[in-house]
Write a structure and sequence with these properties.
CATH class of the largest domain: Alpha Beta
Number of domains: 4
Structural class: alpha+beta
Shape: globular
Number of helices: 13
Strand order of the largest sheet: 3-2-1-4-5
Distance between the termini: 44 Å
CATH architecture of the largest domain: 2-Layer Sandwich
Strand content: 25-35%
Largest sheet: 5 strands, parallel
Radius of gyration: 21 Å
């Protein structure tokens, strides 16, 4: 079996690691793999966004399965190109991927089929957004409709903050084309959870829910990032809530996409808010979440590969279930100083060898590269993901933090409070 992983970040490292556990004898390839992925896969010198180049290479090599990690290749139609050539690929078509690449599309779809989400309005003109924000008043959430690397949602506690956020996107081009349309929505009170659903377009198998920590600062403060850490399982994810997510959110959305002639085959990620009125959708993604994948995948008991192959080949996963171990996983993201704003690259990284020998700790690479003179160096905003495994959340967090403290690079930034809502429920305020 030949498996190609498209992408080279922390999520893709986790996917590669998990699939290699499922199929140790398979031959793995990855697009320009980071140094953590390199020992596990043969390098393919193609950009993850080179859709035609990837299809030509996969066809020539007789690739059995292609798994796409990042959202941009999916939004650019990599699945459409592969499927036209009869090449099995796990991931949705470009039209289905609009569930992530256009927040306006996703919100309109949810409104049409009655999927619970925050009240909203969409704008392309600053003057119209300004008038609405002034009338609605804070708190509000202002989102770039397009792909903004997880940084395009700004929670605004005052009207002035909301006006500035919308102005920066629509009038000043803060997020480029991604911010040419904005979604202004009500602030939701509650606690967030993330659920991955592997789907063949009609049936969905839910994986273990997790909780991401998007803000840069301790106690969920500061600007949003792509994610500073996550843990699983989570107390919020009761059986009743999972049933609610499946019946009121996943299945109606999948049905609506199929009826719109853009069936979704791949990984549908639902970012949800548990409110007093039930679950509401914060956002949808068209791929595995990062950093959630790094805690969900290591806890899987059953093979992920079987589900991915069935979906990629156009088969059904009706009745399929995904089992998980009884333990806990928590990851702490090590970021570059200045992230999510500007930051320096090329700072040497030291990872003590004993960390990679531990059975209760995993280090997934994200923004790293090998330098001829310096060795392993930083190459991105989020640099490494340190996953602690344990019988409970307290032990998993302690292990993760041990690893985070032991790894060294100049300007290392991380949160020491991942999982704080579960460990300190009395001090966990509502957030939206």
């Amino acid at each position: 079996m030949k498996i190609l992983i498209v992408g080279n970040g922390g999520r893709e490292h986790a996917l590669l690691w998990q699939l290699k556990r499922d199929a140790p004898s398979a031959r793995f390839y990855a697009t320009r793999p980071n140094p953590g992925m390199a020992p596990l896969a043969e390098a393919v010198d193609l950009a993850p966004t080179d859709v035609e180049g990837l299809a030509n290479w996969a066809e020539g090599q007789g690739i059995t399965l292609t798994v796409v990690g990042p959202e941009i290749p999916l939004a650019r139609g990599v699945a459409d190109v592969f499927r036209k050539r009869g090449l099995p690929l796990f991931g949705p078509s470009a039209s289905a991927a609009r569930i992530e690449s256009s927040k306006a599309f996703a919100k309109d779809l949810m409104k049409r089929v009655g999927v619970p989400t925050a009240a909203y309005r969409c704008f392309r003109r600053w003057s119209e957004a300004e008038a609405y924000i002034q009338e609605a008043g804070a708190p509000l959430v202002v989102k770039a409709s397009g792909l903004a690397a997880g940084k395009g949602a700004i929670v605004c506690s005052t009207t002035e903050e909301a006006l500035e956020a919308a102005r920066s996107m629509l009038d000043e081009g803060a997020f480029g084309e991604a911010g040419s349309e904005v979604v202004v929505e009500e602030f939701m009170q509650g606690e967030e959870l993330s659920i991955f659903g592997v789907t063949d377009g009609r049936h969905v198998t839910l994986l273990l829910p997790s909780q991401d920590h998007k803000r840069i600062g301790e106690g969920d403060t500061g600007p949003n990032t792509g994610g500073m850490g996550a843990y699983a399982p989570i107390p919020l994810a009761t059986p009743d809530r999972l049933d609610e997510a499946r019946e009121r959110i996943f299945l109606p959305v999948l049905d609506a996409l199929e009826r719109s002639a853009c069936p979704f085959r791949g990984l549908l990620y639902a970012g949800l808010m548990a409110t007093d009125e039930g679950l509401k959708v914060v956002e949808f993604n068209c791929r595995f979440g990062d950093p959630e994948a790094q805690v969900v995948l290591p806890l899987m008991d059953g093979p992920l590969l079987e589900l991915l192959v069935a979906v990629a080949r156009g088969g059904s996963i009706a009745g399929a279930e995904a089992s998980s171990s009884s333990g806990t996983a928590l990851n702490t993201v090590l970021a570059s100083e200045g992230y999510p704003g500007s930051y320096e690259k090329g700072r040497p990284i030291t990872i003590p060898p004993e960390l990679e020998e531990r059975s209760d700790l995993l280090v997934f690479h994200a923004g790293t590269r090998m330098d001829e003179s310096e060795g392993l160096v930083t190459a991105g905003g989020r640099v490494l993901s340190v996953v602690g495994l344990g019988p409970d959340l307290e032990r998993a967090r302690a292990t993760s933090l041990e690893g985070a403290e032991a790894i060294q690079f100049q300007g290392k930034t991380f949160r020491s409070d991942i999982g704080w809502r579960a460990l300190e429920p009395e001090s966990a305020g509502a957030d939206g």
